[in-house]
Amino acid sequence: MAFKDEQQAKAYWSENLSLMFKLLAIWFVVSFGFGILLVDVLNEVRFFGFKLGFWFSQQGAIYTFVALIFVYVFKMNALDKKYGVDE
């Protein structure tokens, strides 16, 4: 990567880390919050015939993780273009 100056490199990594922490927070809320902490409340709702809390702990966290990977790729491509370090 060839940044124009040190300040631009710091801004890039700051935005990158901010994005990663936001996505990790979403994944944590879905996997730990919905799958463990709120499981009793969510189990009162049915989703495709399964209790919603069970679904989040077994499938929802995995689907969310895969979706977050695609969001990260899309956002990082945009960030790379913004700072002129895209391929």
Automatic annotation (TrEMBL):
TM helices/strands, residue ranges: 21-42, 54-74
NCBIfam families for this protein: Na_symport_sm
Pfam families attached to this UniProt entry: DUF4212
Source species: Pseudoalteromonas holothuriae
Record's keyword terms, sorted: Membrane, Transmembrane, Transmembrane helix
UniProt keyword Transport present: no
Residues covered by the Sodium symporter small subunit domain: 9-86
Annotated InterPro entries: Na_symporter_ssu
Superkingdom of the source species: Bacteria
UniProt KW Transmembrane keyword: yes
Protein name as it appears in the record: Sodium symporter small subunit domain-containing protein
